[in-house]
């Protein structure tokens, strides 16, 4: 054995001796501090004691160096006081010293000495005894120095004659996530928590001295009693909603001004992504037999293994459409957090034919318990080609096919509005309003589509392109003026005006003789035209409520519009009106009189605001004055009913609680006033800008602003 090995063995023995005697003393010291000053002080004392023992052991071990080893070896006669030669460089020794070193090294390897210090059992037993005495004193230490000598126990609860206010000495909050998440529980000394909805919370608190009663007081007035278990007070509750709470005792805590925060993290619903097909609307190929669908569903805590594919077939055209629905159970593949679903739709089994449509939508659920969340994919539409498209499929190089625009029928608008109402509880306010607005846009497109039969113009839409290649010439304008003045009804010689092929407007202009009159621009009889006007009025009302986010108010008008459309479809007579409308005679006595009797106000009235919006406004105004009273209870109830009106409701709840604790705090009033600013109603926006003038309009405006020539 070489000298360095002897030195390491001796140092290891010294470390073990110091640790064996010092660790029990450190543990006893930490236990005593824990009982006397609480968990935090006990943790600090134990850590410092262990660090002191480790530092002392290291210092003792480092004292065993090369000089110590040489002295211990020279103490034995067989090393002939030559142990220092073992640590000298060989090249620095003369031949005699080298021979002596070899002899000492041979004796050291032959019979290595045991230089380890002996176990000091008396001193170790003394350390164990002292540690035992300190631990016994810690266990027998009184729980609080301000308690009376005797305790009165009634029904298992400890009631003490407390002479000093209790103080919070130790805290522990355990958070156990729901079982379906698979996340491990966590614990800590912080009483603020941000956990998943449905997590189980468990509080463990220590007071010194012990109070008679203790509970958790939430900002909404709810109480959670704390039960004494040994020297701790415990309470358990599942986390369902965000809130603030305080620790309240009887008698009151010495530092009861702190409010802790519980924030709920909602479990997001699963997300469904369409992999195939790439587009929402797909035009089927001629003689296509199957339709391939691929989906991917993802969720933070796993998606259910099964999903439901809803297949809806639409047969017919216009309002005479027959719907059939089928449900197909699908099994997913891949990990639970990202499952894939695939299905090949057999079009022949669905019984669809040319001109029909197939709508597919996948519904998946996550693993949330007890009520899973459901998500649906976007609707995928497969449109089968009509018989005419199939017949002309061989002439694609010679015929340009244009797919007609996809218009929503009135019945489909009703179905979408009813489906949106069913999903109202699962959607947030912004998403609900956006979907209702999208349905309102479909209602507007359908209203403009039917309005073309009454000669109505598109609202705000793009104007149709001109039939000619350039702007109207002077000759064309002159010919139009002559047509208006003379009413020459011979349209057969219109060689210069070329009608666009397939344009209903050009056909009516060529043969229908509309002359820009809405009453004459229709092929319907007056009674049918009146019914269609009533349908458009109902569509207008339905569109207005949908665009404002009220599909429930729009459904009655949508049903009435559907009834009127059915009556229009059953009309028997279609003729071309020859004369214009007969207007009532003008009362010449009222002309140019300046009287405005019976005329209503044309000013636009602002939309009425909800009564609940006045509560934050009144509170915001009252907080501006230092001495003004603020109804904090009403503001708290409004905040509980409208949590989506502000970015962070807990911040406002904390500001309200702080103002309740300190009514004279001006900083608290200003802080609450600043946080109420996002909840105030916004002022109505400026009026919409007027559309830009076209060529004729600009010419008219230029003529108005042009300087007039003076008459000579």
Describe this structure in words.
- This protein is an alpha+beta fold and 712 residues long.
- Helix content is 37%, strand content 19%.
- The strands form 5 sheets. Strands 14, 16, 17, 19, 20 and 21 form a 6-stranded mixed β-sheet that branches.
Can you summarize this structure?
With 712 residues, the chain is of the alpha+beta class. The protein is 37% helix and 19% strand.
Q: What gap, in angstroms, lies between the N and C termini?
A: 134 Å
Based on Cα principal axes, name the global outline.
elongated
Question: Could you say which structural class the secondary elements and strand pairing correspond to?
Answer: alpha+beta
Unreliably modeled segments: 144-162, 395-407, 460-522, 572-577
- Number of DSSP strands? 21
Percent strand: 15-25%
* Average pLDDT over all residues: 76
Q: How much helix, percentage-wise, in residues?
A: 25-40%
Number of helices: 18
Cα-based radius of gyration, to the nearest Å: 45 Å
**Biggest sheet: strands, sense, closure?**
6 strands, mixed
Observed structural traits:
6-stranded mixed beta sheet; 21 strands; 18 helices; 712 residues; 5-stranded antiparallel beta sheet; alpha+beta
């Amino acid at each position: 054995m070489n000298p360095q090995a002897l030195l390491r063995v001796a140092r290891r023995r010294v470390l073990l001796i110091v640790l064996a005697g010092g660790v029990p003393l450190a543990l006893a010291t930490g236990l005593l501090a824990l009982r006397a000053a609480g968990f935090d002080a006990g943790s600090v004392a134990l850590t410092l004691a262990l660090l002191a023992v480790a530092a002392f052991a290291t210092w003792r071990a480092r004292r065993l160096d090369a000089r110590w080893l040489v002295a211990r070896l020279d103490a034995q006669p067989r090393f002939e006081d030559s142990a220092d030669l073992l640590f000298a460089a060989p090249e620095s020794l003369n031949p005699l010293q080298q021979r002596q070193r070899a002899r000492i090294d041979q004796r050291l390897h032959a019979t290595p000495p045991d230089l380890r210090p002996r176990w000091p059992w008396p001193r170790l037993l003394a350390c164990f005894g002292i540690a035992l005495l300190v631990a016994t004193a810690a266990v027998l230490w009184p729980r609080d120095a301000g308690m009376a000598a005797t305790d009165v126990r009634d029904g298992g609860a400890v009631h003490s004659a407390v002479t000093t206010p209790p103080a919070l000495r130790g805290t522990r909050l355990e958070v156990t996530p729901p079982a379906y998440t698979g996340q491990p529980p966590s614990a800590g000394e912080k009483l603020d928590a941000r956990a998943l909805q449905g997590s189980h919370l468990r509080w463990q608190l220590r007071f010194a001295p012990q109070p008679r009663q203790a509970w958790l007081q939430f900002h909404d007035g709810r109480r959670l009693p704390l039960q004494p278990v040994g020297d701790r007070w415990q309470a358990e509750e599942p986390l369902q909603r965000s809130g603030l709470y305080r620790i309240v005792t009887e008698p009151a805590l010495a530092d009861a001004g702190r409010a802790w925060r519980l924030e709920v993290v909602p479990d997001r619903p699963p997300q469904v992504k369409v992999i195939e097909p790439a587009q929402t609307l797909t035009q089927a190929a001629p003689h296509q037999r199957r339709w391939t669908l691929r989906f991917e569903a993802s969720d933070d805590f796993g998606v259910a293994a099964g999903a439901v594919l809803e297949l809806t077939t639409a047969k017919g055209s216009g309002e005479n459409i027959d719907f059939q629905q089928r449900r197909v159970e699908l099994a997913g593949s891949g990990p639970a957090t990202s499952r894939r679903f695939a299905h090949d739709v057999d079009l022949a089994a669905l019984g669809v034919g040319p001109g029909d449509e197939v709508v597919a939508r996948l519904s998946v659920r996550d693993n949330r318990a007890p009520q899973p969340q459901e998500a649906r994919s976007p609707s995928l539409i497969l449109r089968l080609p009509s018989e005419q498209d199939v017949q002309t499929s061989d002439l694609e190089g010679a015929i340009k096919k244009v797919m007609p625009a996809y218009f929503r029928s009135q019945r489909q608008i009703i179905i979408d509005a009813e489906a949106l109402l069913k999903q109202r509880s699962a959607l947030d306010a912004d998403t609900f309003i956006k979907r209702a607005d999208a349905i309102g846009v479909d209602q507007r497109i359908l209203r403009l589509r039917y309005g073309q039969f009454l000669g109505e113009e598109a609202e705000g839409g793009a104007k149709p392109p001109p039939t000619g290649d350039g702007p109207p010439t002077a000759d064309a304008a002159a010919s139009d003026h002559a047509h208006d003045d003379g009413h020459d009804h011979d349209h057969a010689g219109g060689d210069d005006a070329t009608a666009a092929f397939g344009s209903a407007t050009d056909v009516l202009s060529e043969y229908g003789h509309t002359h820009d009159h809405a009453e004459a621009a229709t092929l319907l009889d007056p009674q049918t035209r009146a019914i269609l006007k009533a349908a458009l009025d109902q569509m207008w009302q339905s569109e207005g409520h949908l665009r404002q986010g009220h599909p429930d108010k729009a459904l009655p008008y949508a049903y009435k519009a559907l009834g009127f459309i059915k009556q229009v479809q059953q009309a028997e007579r279609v003729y071309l009106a020859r004369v214009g409308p007969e207007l009532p005679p003008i009362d010449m006595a009222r002309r140019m009189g300046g009287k405005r009797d019976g005329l209503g106000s044309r000013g636009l009235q602002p939309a009425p605001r909800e009564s609940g919006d006045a509560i934050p406004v009144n509170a915001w105004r009252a907080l501006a004055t230092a001495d003004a009273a603020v109804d904090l209870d009403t503001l708290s109830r409004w905040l509980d009913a409208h949590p989506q009106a502000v970015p962070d409701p807990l911040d406002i709840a904390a500001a309200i609680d702080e103002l309740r604790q300190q009514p004279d705090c001006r900083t608290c009033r200003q802080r609450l006033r600043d946080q109420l600013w996002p909840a105030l109603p916004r002022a109505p926006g400026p009026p919409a800008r007027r559309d830009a003038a076209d060529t004729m309009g600009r010419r008219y405006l230029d003529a108005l602003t042009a300087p007039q020539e003076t008459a000579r």
